[in-house]
Amino acid sequence: MNEITRKPLNSLGYDFIPSPYLPKGKDEYYLRNKQVKNGIHYRHLSAYEIEVLVRNRNTSDNWNNLLVSDAFNPELVQNCKFFGLVRIGKLEPYYLEYHNLRRPVGFYNSTVISCDFGDNVVVDNVNYISHYIVGNGVILVNCNEIATTDHSKFGNGILKEGESENVRIWVELCNENAGRSILAFDGILPGDAFLWTYFRDDDNLLNRFKEFTEKKFDALRGYYGTIGDRTVVKNCKILKDVKIGSDAYLKGANKIKNVTINSSSEANTQVGEGCELVNGIIGYGCRLFYGVKAVRFVLASHSQLKYGARLINSYLGENSTISCCEVLNSLIFPSHEQHHNNSFLCAALIQGQSNMAAGATVGSNHNSRSPDGEIIAGRGFWPGLCVSLKHNSKFASYAILAKGDYATELNIPLPFSLISNDLSKDQLVVMPGYWFMYNMYALARNSWKYIDRDKRIDKIQQLEFSFLAPDSVNDLLQSLPLLAKFTGKAWLKREGNTKKMTDDEIIAIGQVLLDTKDPVVNELVVLADGFENSKRPVRIIKVMKAYHLFKELVMYYLVQQLLEHIRTNNIKTHEQLIESLPSKAARAPWMNVGGQLILRSEIDKLNKQIVAGRIKDWDAVHNFYVQQGKNYQMEKLAHAMAAVREVFDINLKKASPGIIKSLLHQSITTKEWMVKEIYESRAKDYRNPFRKMVYETTEAMNKVVGKLEDNSFIKQEQKALEEYKKDIHQLVTKLKLDKPGAKLKTA
Q1: For domain 233-395, is the CATH number 2.160.10.10?
Q2: Which DSSP symbol is given to 311?
Q3: For the segment 452-497, what is each residue's pLDDT rounded down to a tens digit?
Q4: Residue ranges per domain, the chain?
Q5: Closest listed residue to residue 553, CA positions, set 666, 651, 387, 391
Q6: Which of 18, 178, 232, 691 fits a disulfide with 172 by CB distance 3.0 to 4.6 angstroms?
Q7: How far apart are the C-alpha atoms of 457 and 188, rounded to whole Å?
Q8: At what angle do helices 543-569 and 712-734 cross, to 10 degrees?
């Protein structure tokens, strides 16, 4: 049966901190008084003010415990009940207005228990507000319950004095069996979540992460909930153990419990109608609207949940949007888009700049003997319409999947690939380099869009948005020998050569065929192994084109890093350029740590320092991210130099002016091709008769979708190309690269 306790009325509003947890010599308000920083000088009521309050149908268990500021107006307090110590700032004869909601300053028809209020607040028809510290200019209207418990944690994964470990809230990311669980905390970055979920074999490291989280807070009981300046809360039902920043807007929420809502004047957060949020952290500038359900979650800054989305045991990175769908047990890096009611994402690590189409089912908890499968997808992951994927699967960067049911596990290491089912031949088909061949417009526009939409104010982690970066280029580099190997195998099979050969020998055969652009390659049926957990064939198409495209992209990647290096360091001569280049340029593994690309060796050092106690808290980890961001440009340049040396055997530290000039001019050719493909991939939409058939005239189509020649992104890229050419020619002159010297030789 329900246990309903009965206590004396005169104890209501007192003894907030149970006596076993009240430090010796302290009263129940000692933490509250530390939290109040409004600078208001409070005083006792005068006899006249008490008389007015009583006349206005107000009651208090003890008028001596109702403290007010000098500018208090008792006429603006009507039909309210006060219990415990209540402190009120200025009440002046104004009304506050926000989004056409107009309410007079003051307290009306409300029950207030042991709270502090700043100046000129509106508390109107709040049935119950208990143990809150409310800022200046706050509007609270038509709320059922706003309360804080003595053991409130505001969504942080900590314990208070006397609590047992089984009440701690863990967020079960990446795997439904809770094997990668982390503790959420206010300020947790996607990189923090990644490190905690990824390195599960190091118990000492995991214990340190737990210690870092507990160290950010204390276990004392008795902290009050807070509502920041100028925050508006209207028509909400239950707010319990909620910490709210300034300038937030909460309207019509059903229930918010054990949550921190970060908000500020520069990045205000809004929670709308029908939302139910439990055990979570919400970052700055977020939007949650229309029936959202989120439980055990982190919503990073400037992200959105809308239209009934369900986010459970998941972390959603910055600048992301999830609408209408269900996301479970997932760690999602920044710039994720998922807009459709019938998409489902479960037990996945999605590494950013991703887009989930309607009907996509990425992972399922019903397709294996135990719900312990996972999916890992690199940056730029795009499962298309009605794609169904099975755990475990893994994808290189910028994988796009065509409509279909992929019934077995996939491991696709080729980047920028289109993956599709050929049901007529019962085979998996992979087209590496698809984005550059057929959808350059979307690839380039998305890269620009993510930069434009990065609204973060505090950019602790330097996010990488370029489609050519250490992660994707490493994918390109590992693809070249794979493509050569598969080509060599196909040629040997065609020739009927059954001689047993090593992988290196097979790769060498394939490289000769591809590097010489032997026409026979286009006649081969190139099959891959290890891409799918099935016995059906996996066919690689456009092998020759992809192979040379990937090599060209490696060269282009280097030039982009060179240009950035020259601009940043104001390089003026060829000699100065060579001298400034990093001396060590060995290609090394990189990790995508929450959208920030960091050398694996640096992450290993970080982990050792954490375990050894030299890095002592999360702030120090965040300082590591900042330092890695400062090192990134030079490390990326060294990586690009190593990549070009690996592919073309060019040592940039010894490159003549002629080679540098050739590199720069080659980049113009690549850039021209990219801009041409940006235009052509969009122009196809205007030439497609099936797209045109819904319009009577071309003029009608242009009115609806806009003229191709007016496309702002295409015009922007075309203008950027002309500026790029001009910059390259000026750079050649500036660095005096026209001296006689070796020329660049490419395959």
Answers
A1: yes
A2: E
A3: 888 898 899 999 999 999 999 999 999 999 999 999 999 999 988 8
A4: 9-147, 233-395, 443-650, 656-746
A5: 666
A6: 178
A7: 15
A8: 60
